[in-house]
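Practice problem: predict the structure.
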Amino acid sequence: MTIKTITFHQRSGGKTGQILASPQIEKKLAKVEALYQRYHGIKMGRVKFYDLALTHAREAKAEAGGYLQYTAEAIAGIVLDHMHKELGKAVRRKDVSEPIAIEIGNVKIDNLRDLARGKRGNQKGKSTLKVDANGKRILTPRNPDFKVA
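Answer:
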């Protein structure tokens, strides 16, 4: 049995594969995420970034045609390049009071903070599972009409 070694870039599927289609885009995203973390103190939401790039890629595809994966990769590269430049300037300035905005043609992002990762889980802080006085889950049958004999 041989060990499979991969020396080339393997593209993922779905949103990730449409955006991160090359090693260069992945490296640029890693740099931007590190700068974003340093400036804002929270992680950048990749899914929010993917949605932003794919929205504009779909608009470009509707206007000019072509393949979505190539358009999305190009748009992601351009947006990441502008984000990298602006975040780099802001980190060097060490002034975190002003929001960072970027404008690329008719695409405008007023505040890069909007791309921050969202909170996970139940936002109310309460568990949706029923628990007893000891904090153990109360198991309920899937079928409410189920009776134990």
